[in-house]
Specification:
The protein is of the alpha/beta class. The chain has one domain. It is built from ten helices and nine strands.
Length: 249
């Protein structure tokens, strides 16, 4: 594997993003502007499933010989979307949603035209269960660029280009503010290897081995149902849920 690894001062991160020209639609979690590490807004889901989205347009006038097609597909945006600083679980959610939208050209045009810069987690929260579903806080799959904290240096970040698209982005777009690392492969492996994540103690195994019908019929579902407004926000907030319909308005 080719390695393209750079360092950047944390204080210059927003400056680097502001250097990007009008050809980029930059989306970052709010906490990156302050340098804090924490949960961001649901920007990945709103990117995958914009509300609303124009699927087609049509003409009311009768078609001419040169224009026989009343339906028109919307023109593609002339910008590249940069999803910067998303967590490994969010990056994986794009892949999981793609399994259901395999033949959706609108979905894949957005995904294939985007650059995903993931930010590896330093800790595992008590509510996390990524390790139980085949992922983890250091899962680098489904990213174009991996961003991680530098061990022993809180003021710096490490940027590692994985895909060809990611390596080109680092070298051509952010190059002036980046410091190329020597011994890149060793630095990445050392940074990942020194991370000690606590064992996932969630009770999914217990859940799967229990009587699922008893859970299905549990009384607390009635309590939740009574307060439900059928707004659908729970569907949209879940990173991997794709239970949507399309309304032609």
């Amino acid at each position: 594997m080719r390695y393209s690894v750079y360092r950047i001062e944390r204080a210059r991160l927003i400056e680097a993003l502001n250097m990007l020209g009008p050809g980029f639609d930059v989306r970052v979690p709010p906490h990156l502007e302050t340098g804090e590490s924490g949960p961001g807004e649901n920007m990945v889901k709103t990117f995958m499933f914009p509300q609303p989205e124009v699927l087609f347009t049509f003409k009311k006038a009768p078609p001419t010989a040169e224009d026989v097609d009343l339906l028109r597909e919307p023109s593609l945006p002339h910008t590249t979307t940069l999803l910067f600083g998303i967590r490994p679980c969010d990056a994986r959610s794009i892949h999981l949603n793609g399994l259901a939208y395999e033949e959706d050209t609108y979905f894949w045009r957005r995904i294939e035209g985007a650059i995903i810069v993931g930010y590896l987690c330093k800790t595992v929260l008590s509510t996390c269960f990524c390790q139980r579903v085949g992922s983890g806080p250091d899962d680098t799959r489904y990213m174009d660029v991996v961003m991680m904290d530098v061990e022993g240096d809180h003021d710096a970040l490490l940027l590692h280009g994985i895909t060809e698209k990611g390596m080109i982005f680092l070298s051509q777009e952010l190059g002036p503010l980046l410091i190329k690392c020597g011994g890149a492969k060793e630095e990445i492996e050392q940074g990942l290897g020194s991370r000690q994540y606590p064992k996932d103690t969630n009770t999914l195994d217990t859940l799967f081995s229990s009587d699922l019908m008893a859970l299905y019929n549990a009384p607390f579902w009635d309590q939740l149902k009574d307060g439900c407004l059928n707004c659908g926000i729970c569907t949209f907030r879940c990173p991997t849920c794709y239970c949507f319909d399309i309304q032609d308005e």
